[in-house]
């Protein structure tokens, strides 16, 4: 009987829980009540969504276990009995999964690490392979995602309805293609698998301490509720069954963030000292006497374009539900109809402050070596006092920006599935499965999915920073006569209101079967057809009035809108409490300021109220009277895949038993991509060096691609002794390109130059990543529930995707005057090819009024017969190959009947695809690659359960760009301690406490060196106290 691992967590105050953990050792006289049931039924496995395919020895039975110790013991059986390398987690009891968040449970598995968002698990990386290349299934069915990529968002799903999660680290022919790192199968309960009446209900109170550190108008409830329930029953001698589960969680949380602003990032240069002592572009290095440890000649160095701080509030309501009907008219036939629903509503709000650096320093000190950045830096600005119409005034210095945001988004997932499992004869079975599933992310507010309402006071005479510590310290200088920032000098400036819309749909049909031969070997076979549609659209309404949105300036805004606060109050410790930190800023209500800005601008006749609302018109229709820049994008990709597989398996009774499984899968995929984008219809030579594109409306552009692959696999398992096993697996897998890389959208830079322009595009003709995988593992199961394992894995990955620039003429009738008939005539008359003012003067003097020429407006428009304008297009291409290998070490030990146990694992990953921090320009490196470790100690005896779990992830490269250019981003090493404690009052009622991130760890991201901070984000511990009743 195969079982899977379960590792629970609970929480309360740290001191109380530590006492509880130590106190459990004395509670050994209570009777045990955590024995596993005597039987179980099979659940869906990847590629076979059967509810009762118990004849397949590779199926992983989702045993309904109870308690930590039994779950830990089940993990050993799962690992021992599986085909290939498989790990998993099983619910401790119906409706009781080890963690509220599935990703948090998965990180306990060897080789699995997670990305966190808003302080909880979001996406998973397996064996160094990032979230987009790990395939997630629900009951063996491929699930759509609305994340913008292929990564599954685990925070959308509550764990109460989950019976098991399986992680397939080696390939098998029956598994849908798409997972290079792993295929993760999420299983939900089925009524006929657990006959009879079962029901339970749970309630928790969530105390998120991160909410306590927010400004008063952001603080939510001290305790937010989480409720869940599950019901299952069968009738008619267990021929018919219904199961229903539902959950609802409210969570209010917050964070404090210090960051070099996204989209601005770090400006990176190569130092080229000049005679005047100023080195590099933009004067980013001060004159030599004011520079300490100046970067050397030709060293790469970076400067932050901006530095800011924000306080962020998040309110989430997550609703999940699942309904399943099963009918078995005979012992050989079972039909299942199921529906899964999840909704995750997220409302976010933010207040921030930031400064923009002009790269005119008067002092700086630097880190050592190439790839350096300032430890300290300062620049001073000129001030010209201003008086605005209406009498308001300010010093006229540079601005200290203060912004706010208020957004809402809803993520919704739906899946309707139908399955028929038919055992035709004792040796032949068939299974048919079909599902129609969707994932959608859409705006839930008139203000959009992201926005910025910016204000500023123009009283910053100087600015600098100190990045010598972990926390970046901003230092400001006010002009003479100002001792503190003044609300009477504040005014609204620019604004951005954006809506992002994502929708993905999958229709998938699978037919699978199995022959059982007389020699007990088996032949599995199957075919499937999958249609995946992905749409990504956006609208952006932007006012670039960063110098002030109305002529009246501060006079248009009442002082009462602004409330003085100090950013350091919202951070815990570190440099935030330094007296050098210039942390004073103004809080303001987003809606009040938005309305005030809209009224001021409308009353001044400069726009319409719609300029301060997000648009839901993804076609880009004009808004009468609007002065805002309005851009749209709509990208659609359709992916049709057809596949077939064969897999044969047998066990040979040699001197040592040898299990063999060999198979092959065939994948045939066609990609069609279309995108809505502005349609350039002409090139207007408007000045000596500017060739502007002239647009007329928006058009859909369609491109395509296709690929076919054979994917073989081999699994061998040799029983060296009755308790020692040696495994070898080899296989070929593919990882499909990201949706953003496949889209047909193309952006062309305007203005262009006489020799062409620049641009970027997607590439629907991309091939998938192809990985050739080898696994070797040794496992010793030396006692019940206890084992030691060592595994080595190797992946040779081809077709890595990186951007490459190519010279193209994407619009065949986009004619440029450069090199055209008028141009050549001017050159023949004596103008040099490089003397563009001469050429323009000649054309205006000799062809004014001819087609395309208007001297009055200074326009020369390309005509048919002129050259077609060429562009240097940056697009994703398949151009790299490299290896990835690593080791997995795992030990689990149960101390007999004492109730105590430990589990520890460590994963070491290595790759040649690393980033060189001392080189400027485009590089390719593997993101998400990191070593990981876990340590769990638990006690489970009688009514008591307690666990302490520590998870650690080493520093890793998270991105190859920071929004400003080719700059690496590294997430620093992070360790998190979670504690849990529960007590079973009787067979029906139990109480629990949980603590997540009890040591209050922060996340920090840096660039080319540790002082090149990109972000520092603080959350806080989260505690939950709950009760559960089992009927």
From TrEMBL:
It is found in: Cell outer membrane. Residues 29-58 are annotated as: Disordered. It comes from the Bacteria. One of its GO terms (cellular component) is cell outer membrane. The keyword Nucleus does not apply. Its main location: membrane. Keywords: Cell outer membrane, Membrane, Receptor, Signal, TonB box. Residues 497-998 form the TonB-dependent receptor-like beta-barrel domain. Residues 29-44 have a biased composition (Low complexity). This is TonB-dependent receptor.
């Amino acid at each position: 009987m195969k079982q899977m691992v379960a590792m629970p967590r609970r929480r309360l105050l740290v001191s109380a829980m530590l006492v509880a953990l130590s106190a459990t050792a004395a509670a050994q006289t209570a009777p045990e009540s955590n024995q596993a049931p005597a039987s179980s039924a099979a659940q869906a496995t990847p590629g076979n969504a059967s509810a009762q395919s118990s004849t397949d020895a590779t199926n992983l039975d989702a045993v309904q276990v109870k308690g930590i110790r039994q779950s830990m013991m089940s993990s050993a059986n799962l690992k021992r009995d599986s085909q290939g390398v498989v790990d998993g987690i099983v619910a401790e009891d119906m409706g009781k999964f080890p963690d509220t968040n599935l990703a948090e449970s998965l990180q306990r598995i060897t080789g699995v690490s997670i990305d966190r968002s808003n302080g909880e698990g979001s996406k998973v990386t397996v064996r160094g392979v990032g979230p987009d290349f790990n395939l997630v299934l629900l009951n063996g069915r491929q699930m759509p995602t609305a994340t913008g990529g292929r990564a599954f968002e685990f925070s959308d799903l509550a764990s109460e309805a989950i019976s098991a999660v399986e992680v397939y680290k080696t390939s098998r022919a029956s598994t849908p293609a798409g997972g290079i790192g792993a295929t993760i199968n999420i299983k939900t309960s089925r009524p006929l698998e657990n006959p009879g009446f079962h029901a339970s209900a749970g309630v928790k109170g969530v105390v998120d301490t991160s909410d306590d550190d927010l400004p008063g108008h952001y603080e939510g409830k001290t305790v937010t509720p989480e409720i869940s329930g599950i019901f299952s029953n069968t009738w008619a001698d267990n021929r018919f069954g219904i199961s229903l589960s539902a959950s609802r969680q409210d969570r209010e949380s917050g964070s404090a963030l210090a960051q070099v602003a996204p989209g601005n990032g770090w400006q990176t240069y190569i130092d080229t000292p000049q005679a005047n002592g100023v080195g590099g572009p933009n004067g980013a290095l001060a004159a030599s006497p004011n520079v300490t440890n100046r970067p050397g000649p030709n060293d790469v160095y970076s400067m932050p374009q901006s530095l800011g701080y924000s306080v962020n509030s998040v309110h989430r309501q997550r609703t999940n539900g699942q309904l399943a009907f099963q009918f078995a008219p005979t012992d050989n036939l079972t039909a299942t109809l199921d529906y899964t629903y999840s909704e995750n509503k997220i409302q976010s709000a933010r207040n921030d402050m930031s400064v923009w650096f002009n790269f005119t320093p008067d002092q700086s000190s630097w880190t050592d070596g190439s790839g350096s950045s300032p430890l300290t830096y300062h620049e001073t600005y000129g001030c010209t006092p201003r008086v605005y119409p209406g009498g308001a005034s300010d010093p006229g210095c540079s601005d200290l920006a203060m912004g706010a945001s208020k957004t809402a988004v809803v993520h919704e997932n739906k899946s309707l599935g139908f399955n028929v499992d038919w055992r035709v004869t004792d040796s032949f079975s068939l299974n048919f499965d079909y599902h129609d599933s969707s994932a959608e992310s859409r705006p839930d507010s008139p203000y959009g999915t992201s926005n910025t309402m910016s204000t500023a006071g123009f009283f910053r005479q100087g600015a600098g920073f100190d990045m010598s510590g972990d926390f970046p310290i901003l230092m400001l200088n006010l002009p003479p006569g100002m001792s503190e920032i003044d609300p009477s000098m504040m005014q609204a400036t620019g604004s951005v209101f954006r809506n992002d819309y994502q929708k993905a749909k999958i229709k998938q049909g699978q037919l699978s079967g199995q022959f059982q031969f007389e020699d007990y070997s088996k032949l599995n076979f199957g075919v499937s057809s999958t249609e995946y549609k992905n749409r990504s659209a956006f609208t952006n309404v932007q006012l670039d009035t960063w110098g002030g949105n109305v002529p009246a300036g501060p006079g248009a805004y009442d002082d009462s809108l602004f409330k003085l606060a100090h950013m350091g109050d919202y951070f815990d410790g570190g440099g935030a409490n330094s007296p050098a930190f210039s942390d004073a800023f103004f809080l303001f209500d987003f809606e009040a300021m938005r309305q005030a800005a809209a009224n001021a601008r409308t009353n001044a006749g400069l726009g319409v109220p719609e300029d301060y609302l997000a648009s839901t018109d993804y076609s880009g229709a004009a808004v009468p009277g609007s002065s805002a820049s309005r851009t749209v994008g709509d990208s659609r990709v359709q992916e049709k895949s057809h596949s077939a597989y064969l897999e044969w398996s047998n066990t040979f009774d040699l001197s040592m038993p040898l299990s063999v499984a060999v198979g092959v899968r065939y994948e045939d995929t066609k990609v069609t991509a279309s995108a809505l984008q502005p349609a350039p219809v002409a090139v207007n030579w408007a000045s000596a060096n500017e060739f502007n594109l002239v647009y007329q409306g928006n058009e859909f552009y369609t491109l395509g691609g296709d690929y076919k692959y054979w994917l073989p696999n081999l699994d061998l398992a040799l029983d060296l002794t009755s308790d020692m096993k040696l495994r070898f697996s080899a296989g070929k897998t593919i990882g499909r390109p990201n949706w953003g890389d496949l889209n047909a959208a193309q952006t062309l830079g305007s203005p262009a130059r006489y020799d062409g322009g620049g641009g970027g595009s997607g590439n629907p003709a991309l091939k998938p990543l192809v990985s050739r995988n080898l696994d070797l593992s040794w496992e010793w199961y030396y006692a019940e529930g206890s084992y030691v394992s060592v595994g080595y894995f190797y992946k040779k990955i081809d077709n890595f995707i990186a951007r490459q620039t190519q010279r193209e003429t994407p619009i065949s009738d986009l004619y440029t005057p450069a090199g055209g008939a008028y141009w050549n005539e001017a050159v023949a008359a004596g103008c040099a090819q490089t003397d563009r003012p001469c050429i323009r003067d000649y054309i205006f003097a000799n062809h004014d009024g001819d087609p395309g020429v208007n001297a009055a407006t200074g326009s020369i428009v390309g005509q048919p017969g002129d050259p077609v304008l060429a562009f240097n297009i940056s697009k994703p291409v398949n151009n790299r190959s490299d290896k990835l290998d690593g080791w997995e070490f795992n030990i689990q030990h149960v101390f007999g009947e004492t109730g105590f146990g430990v589990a520890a694992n460590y994963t070491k990953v290595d790759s040649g695809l690393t980033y060189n921090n001392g080189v400027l320009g485009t590089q390719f490196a593997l993101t998400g690659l990191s070593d990981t470790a876990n340590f769990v100690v638990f006690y489970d005896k009688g009514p008591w359960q307690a666990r302490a779990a520590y998870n650690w992830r080493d520093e890793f490269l998270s991105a190859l760009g920071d929004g400003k250019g080719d700059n690496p981003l590294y997430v620093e090493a992070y360790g998190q301690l979670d504690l849990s404690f529960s007590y079973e009052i009787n067979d029906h009622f139990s109480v629990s406490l949980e603590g997540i991130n009890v040591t209050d760890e922060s996340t920090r991201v840096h660039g080319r060196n540790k002082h090149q901070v990109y972000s520092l984000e603080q959350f806080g511990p989260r505690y939950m106290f709950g009760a559960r009743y089992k009927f």
